[in-house]
Amino acid sequence: MELDHNRVYLLLGSNLGDREGVIKQAIDLIEKKIGTVHSKSSVYETEPWGKTDQPGFLNLALEVVTSLSALEVLEEALAIEKQLGRVRLERWGSRIIDIDIIFFNQEIIHIKERLTVPHPEMQNRKFVLEPLCEIAPDFRHPVLNQTIRQLYITLEDKAIVKKY
After folding, report:
1. pLDDT of 93-119, one tens digit each?
2. pLDDT tier, 49 (very low <50, low <70, confident <90, very high otherwise)
3. 138 carries an active-site annotation
4. Which of 95, 125, 138, 140 is catalytic?
5. What does R_g of the chain's alpha carbons equal in angstroms?
6. E strand or H helix at 24, and its extent?
7. All domains of the chain, ordered by start, with CATH?
8. Catalytic site residue 53?
9. CA-CA distance, 122 to 128, in Å (whole number)?
10. Which of 4, 7, 88, 100 is catalytic?
11. Which residues are CB-contacts of 31 (< 8 A; sequence separation ≥ 6)?
12. Of 4, 7, 28, 86, which is the active-site residue?
């Protein structure tokens, strides 16, 4: 793929404060700092995953076309999270905003303790697969060699994920 046409799939999540407002702000900042939002899923209300004694999340998936590298996308996403007030206190804890890179083109990236793409747990999480299935059902996972739709159909996660 040409450098100015990298396709990155992001998952946004928020479970603190004005969840809708902060997600809208994050999308605006992604458009300014990362690239053009090519497609956007519906917003989903999801129960917390991993650490369940916290408020529910709003999640959505984005397909973004960018000229940035995967590491540059990560750096910009972290800067956006910080700008919007994200504080990292505990794994899987409550957060005002979370921006995860799910896929970067068809690349397999592992930069120790910085970035792993495809996201290593995405295939086990309904709150990731359901919005992704809406915008990219035929996208093929480069490691598992299955489409998002196939992964969603065989998913064992029974968490409640519903359109907001």
Report:
1. 577 899 999 999 999 999 988 999 999
2. confident
3. no
4. 95
5. 15
6. helix 19-33
7. 3-163 (3.30.70.560)
8. no
9. 6
10. 100
11. 37
12. 86
Q: Parallel, antiparallel, or unpaired for β 115-117 and 109-111?
A: antiparallel
Give the total residue count for the chain.
164
Q: Report helix angle 19-33 to 70-83, nearest 10.
A: 140
Closest of 101, 125, 90, 127 to residue 6, by C-alpha: 101
Q: Is there a cis peptide before residue 48, judged by omega within 30 degrees of 0?
A: no
- How would residue 2 be classed by pLDDT, with cut points 50, 70 and 90? very low
Give me the mean pLDDT over the 19-23 stretch. Answer: 96
DSSP state of 147: B
Catalytic residue, from 7, 28, 53, 98: name it. 98
**Residue 157 catalytic?**
no
Q: What is the DSSP string of 71-126?
A: HHHHHHHHHHHHHTT----STT---S-EEEEEEETT--EEETTTEEES-TTGGG-H
Residue 12 has pLDDT above 80, yes or no: yes
Distance, CA of 70 to CA of 45 (rounded, Å):
28
Residue with tokens 């086990």: 124
Active-site residue, 98 included: yes
